[in-house]
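Supplementary Text 2. Reproducibility record for the structural model of the 70-residue chain.

All settings were left at their defaults, and a single model was retained for analysis rather than an ensemble. We include the record here because the model underlies the residue-level annotations in Supplementary Table 4.
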Amino acid sequence: GVQTCALPIYHLHETDKQAWEMHDLLVEEYKVEWHVIEQLKQQNLMEWVRKMNVIENIVDEVIKKELIIQ
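Retained model, structure tokens:
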């Protein structure tokens, strides 16, 4: 019934919320650590995009390991 579905849906919503919060925090931490700053974006857009893609991939893997594959 509805009650049995509510908990899993709530859990999925909370996990998704946690994942996005963790994503945003980790991306910002990696950007600082790797000096992926606005100046780089202005001077060498392709390098900035490359580094951001690497950061996104790393963060996605961390989130999968930490939140999804527990």
